[in-house]
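Predict structure. Chain length: 316.
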Amino acid sequence: MSRPRFVGAAAAALGGLALLAGCGAAAPTVSVAYAGSLAALMDQQLGPAFTRATHVAYQGRGGGSFGLAQEIASGTVPADVFFSMGTAPLDALRSKTTWAVEFATSPLVVAYNPKSPYAPELDQIREGRRPIQDLFSLMARPGFHLGRTNPATDPQGRAFYLMVELAQQLYHLPDGTARRILGPPDNPRQVFSETGILSQLEAGALDASSAFLPEAVERHLPYIALPNALNFADPADAPLYAQASLTLPHAGTVRGAPLAVAATVLDHSRLGLRFLSYALSPAGRRIFERDGYRWIPFSYWGNAAAVPAAIRRESP
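Prediction complete.
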């Protein structure tokens, strides 16, 4: 009698292991790294929608695009697919990918706290009752608490810094206005992480901060829309954006350029390709556009011939 019981128990255990193995095989996980401004879209919308459609589990990790790219390149952050703001951060990933696709833009805005003592004046600028030039004289006041991200690690921080420099040129603001607004690029009184800056704004630690339009919309924050000449979202204004420049440690002199969401698959990951294909599909496009992103004709970074057919066929 003992022998059959032993055999039965062993068979049950093996069956349990097979079931666990089967469950593991049936539920792979895609690791998605993304620019911090995409956090709500990725973690609350695109990731869950992808899992419902494919039964592939989703795991996301956000951060400043430049810093995150460096972590992926060093192996600190594992990722199947990477979504960046702009293509400049992709230079750090040439050992893991040879191509990327740009597919959507996200206008730069100035978000603000509705309880800020400066909110009434910001409301007037937002509503067009005062000219946009007044935004910059307001931000230059000594008591104004402005937040932005680090231009050395985050494309949003770089674009915002260049935007203020460009505004000084375009609107013929007094010399030194941009410096009074921004201070040095790594100004510790202004620089916050991309994933935490809007929380600081909501908590009242800041009067206003840099943001992309979808972030402000998602958090129901009032914001001032910038003209195309300053929002770094219109490819037609690329020559204008390039008039602004900034010198950064380890990066040298950088010039302004349109910021588009760029994505690539790392190390030929099949799961990464599957996720990116879904993001670029009509279902994924609806999620991006509903969140305020502007879909643009696909353009390719790096070796365009290496872009998979699954990506090319989603081009509008």
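Summary: Confidence is low (pLDDT under 50) at residues 1-24.
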